[in-house]
Amino acid sequence: MPRPAGDPAAPESDRVEPRVNLHYDLIYPRLSLWRRLQIPVIGWLGTALVRTIGPTLRFEVLGYRHYESSHAENRPVISAFWHRSIFPAMWWWRNRQVVVMNTTNFDGQWTRRVIERLGYLTAQGSSSRGGLRGLVVMAGRLAEGHDVAFTIDGPRGPRYVAKPGSVMLARKTGLPIMVFHIGVERGHTFERSWDLFQIPHLFSRAVMIIAPLIRVAADADRASLERKHEEMQAALERVRDLAEGWFRMPETERAQLRREWQ
Fold first, then answer.
1. Which is more confidently placed, 74 or 108?
2. Which of 6, 108, 134, 208 could bridge across to 18 with cysteines, CB 3.0–4.6 Å?
3. Do 99 and 141 contact (CB within 8 A), yes or no?
4. pLDDT tens digits, residue range 121-158?
């Protein structure tokens, strides 16, 4: 007969820590000594990799005026982008004190070390563990003037399916959602990873495309929130398709898109 969660008589491998609160679960998973030793090593290597490749990337940015227009009004933004673009995004948005939702699992713990060394702040939580607490922290940081960011299909997918956190946060704070994607000319894609994570090659060209801002009314009902979520999903897909295909387009088509997005 299975033992109840948290039973002190259960073998350590079978114990599950009780949840403190359904909406504020931030219990760190139990990790083996080997895993705990890996966290600082992987964190250091990840930071070194970003700082080695990042300075060699040659960025072109379309739609940056959307970001600038919001900040001109002293209104920070709620960024949303796909997990695949994390590597070049970490470099481009570094040292701006952007607050990023970060998970408490093994990957989240070493990732936190990387992003904080690159000038980010973190809010602990995810769509499955501590999500609402993370949103409360991010709302507070937005009120302080910080931008916040979501890898919107994280932490484990499904790939290219947006989670609702940014729409909920936009309704709570009255601040806009900024959707973007970064495509690279040359890079290595981890084909077996759920997110098709990509690391650019040294000296690769990169393009970041930022969509028009999405605003959510404070009194939005469920149907309105669903429509805004669909709008965000469509914008994410649009900028992804453009950025991923950018370096395969003829120059005439790129010139036309520059005129449209600038």
1. 74
2. 6
3. yes
4. 988 765 555 457 778 889 999 999 999 999 999 778 89
Residue closest to 179 by CA, chosen among 93, 237, 123: 237
CA separation for the pair 55, 62 (Å, rounded): 20
Name residues whose C-beta falls within 8 Å of residue 74's C-beta, 6 or more positions apart in sequence.
145
Whether 13 shows a pLDDT value over 50: the answer reads no
The amino acid occupying position 230 is E
Encoded amino acid at 180, one letter: F
Q: Check if the beta carbon of residue 36 is closer than 8 Å to that of residue 235.
A: no
- In 3-state terms, what secondary structure has residue 118? coil
Give the CA count within 13 Å in the CB-facing half-sphere of 189.
13
- Residue whose C-alpha is closest to residue 133's, from 262, 26, 242: 26
Q: How far apart are CA 40 and CA 198, in angstroms?
A: 22
* CATH code that applies to domain 33-261: 3.40.1130
What confidence score (pLDDT) does residue 19 get?
A: 36
Around Cβ 19, how many Cβ atoms within 10 Å?
14
Residue with tokens 């937005």, as numbered in its chain:
142
Sign of the CA dihedral with 237 first, then 87, 162, and 140 last:
negative
User: Residue 205 CA to chain centroid, in angstroms?
Assistant: 22
Cα–Cα distance measured from residue 230 to residue 82, given in angstroms and rounded to the nearest whole number: 15
